[in-house]
Amino acid sequence: MTAQAHHSPTEPDGNSANSANSGSRAGRADGSGFRLPGLWTRTLGELTLSYVPDAGVSMIPSRVYPSSAQEEWDAYRAHLTHEGHLAMGCGALLVERAGTRLLIDAGHGRISGEEVAHFQHSFGHVRDLPHSLTALGVDPAALETVAFTHFHADHTGWARPDAVEDPRSLFPKARWIVGEGELDAVPDGAGPVLAGQDERTVVVADGTRIADGVHAWSLPGHTPGHTAWVLDTGDGRQVVAFGDALHSPVQIEHPDWEVVLDADREEAERSRRRLVEHLARDGVFGFGVHFADQQLGTVDGTGRWLPWTDEPTRR
């Protein structure tokens, strides 16, 4: 794809539906950039999108991006806490259109907040997804479809067999949809990633339409079957829910920065470059589940992430 001239995004048809969380998007008074993700709802054309938060986490930048140099982060202090940690979030995206609903990813799930990996510093809040769905008026037992970008634990959380007391998970009726290659990459003897994995999982190829206005886009590398979900707004625009193809707005300017958990670093970089180029096209927007309070946005004419805010930037 060839990047076209880009114009600043216009305001979505609807703004945040949960002003109580606006403080989490505003950042701390010290300007450190540590902003825990808050629940929000926005309407774009025929789509209603809701970010469903599950956990906030601060990362150790040089461990998440091992090829980055410490001095390179000096230009990105706005994304770091006062202590120098990178703010990220974990959660899911609820997609609603013409009376149908699907969830993209399933959050972090049953974490204690004390179980940090070597590249993490701390969690800010945990196990919020069930409460967040309730706040949106959504019964998880009634959801019929959960589409996964990939099988890492912070994306399959509430869909795992041990998510809740019911072994069918928080979503007992849902079918699971995943891109080609992801299921095959689960190690032998590892046990099921998802509840009812053998009976409930549907594997789809690149370009497959899974619902009205929703199709798969294969972006492998972070995992073998990593898949973005492309959402048609019905009015000529497009939203790409790209999972872990990108972990932070900073990475848009540094697609060469591999992530510590990338399964195939060269392929992951190729996918990042394809994604960034696509997000720079007119009318194409992205949803980055780990982008702290800047999940929804686009790539502007300078090659940087331009988030949608309650007071949109206009040029």
From TrEMBL:
One of its GO terms (molecular function) is metal ion binding. Pfam families: Lactamase_B. SUPFAM superfamilies: Metallo-hydrolase/oxidoreductase. Residues 1-30 are annotated as: Disordered. It comes from Streptomyces cacaoi. Residues 89-287 form the Metallo-beta-lactamase domain. InterPro entries: MBL_superfamily_lactonases, Metallo-B-lactamas, RibonucZ/Hydroxyglut_hydro. Belongs to the metallo-beta-lactamase superfamily. Keywords: Hydrolase, Metal-binding, Zinc. This is MBL fold hydrolase. Gene3D superfamilies: Ribonuclease Z/Hydroxyacylglutathione hydrolase-like. Residues 13-30 have a biased composition (Low complexity).
